[in-house]
Design goal:
By secondary structure, the protein is an alpha/beta fold. The protein has one domain: Ribonuclease H-like superfamily/Ribonuclease H (Nucleotidyltransferase, domain 5, 2-Layer Sandwich). Helices cover 42% and strands 14% of the residues. It has a five-stranded mixed β-sheet.
Length: 210
């Protein structure tokens, strides 16, 4: 007796999930499609917002400037009152910094966490993002789609669940291999995270207008 296995083959083919390409560190061949552009990459929170101004060249990245901004509140403010005061304070600082940073093509910031797990105050990132987008709009600077933490961790070190230490160690290696000129002024966690966001954005497949 002959058994027709065509149906089983169809099911087997349908169930296959395409494998993601093996990870490799990004190179300037991946990033130079943005050659000539200047972007501000941001890791935003009310307590420490890191900004890194990146200039893309054909054969390297240049860090033009870094900033770390902290939203301020009255010492007696609590709860959402404190959150709102910090957000307003951060917005004013961002307005000043964006106003003295010429020739910026776009801003990109980290994705806002959904909450839960170890995230104590997810509203901090959300309110900081709102302040950033509001000021960017006033200065006419486009804001690109957010880059989720899992995305930039995979781009930088190949592990979506990597720790900050693992990602930042891989970033330091990238600074030499790309290379990244001016990396020595990226000196704290907030600006290192911002730079990871910027590199992941530049590595996207959609090109200059993505």
């Amino acid at each position: 007796m002959t058994i027709n296995t065509a149906g089983l083959k169809a099911i087997s083919t349908k169930a296959r999930v395409p494998r993601r390409d093996p990870w490799r560190p990004p190179t300037m061949a991946d990033l130079s499609k943005h050659e000539g552009r200047r972007i501000i990459a941001v890791d935003q929170s009310l307590s420490a917002t890191g900004l890194v101004v990146i200039h893309v060249h054909a054969d390297h990245l240049s860090i033009l400037r870094t900033e770390t901004l902290r939203g301020m509140a009255d010492k007696n403010a609590e709860g959402y009152e404190e959150t709102l005061q910090r957000a307003l304070s951060l917005g004013k600082q961002l307005a000043t910094k964006l106003g003295v940073t010429p020739d910026i093509d776009e801003i990109v910031h980290e994705g806002v966490p959904i909450g839960g797990g170890k995230i104590v105050r997810p509203e901090s990132s959300l309110m900081a993002s709102l302040a950033l987008r509001q000021e960017a709009g006033l200065w006419g600077i486009p804001v690109s789609p957010m880059v989720q933490p899992q995305t930039h961790r995979r781009v930088i070190c190949g592990k979506p669940g990597a720790t900050k230490k693992e990602e930042h160690e891989a970033l330091a290696t990238l600074a030499g291999s790309l290379p990244i000129l001016g990396y020595e002024i990226v000196t704290n966690e907030a600006t290192r995270d911002a730079l990871c966001v910027g590199i992941a954005h530049l590595a996207r497949n959609e090109g200059k207008n993505g």
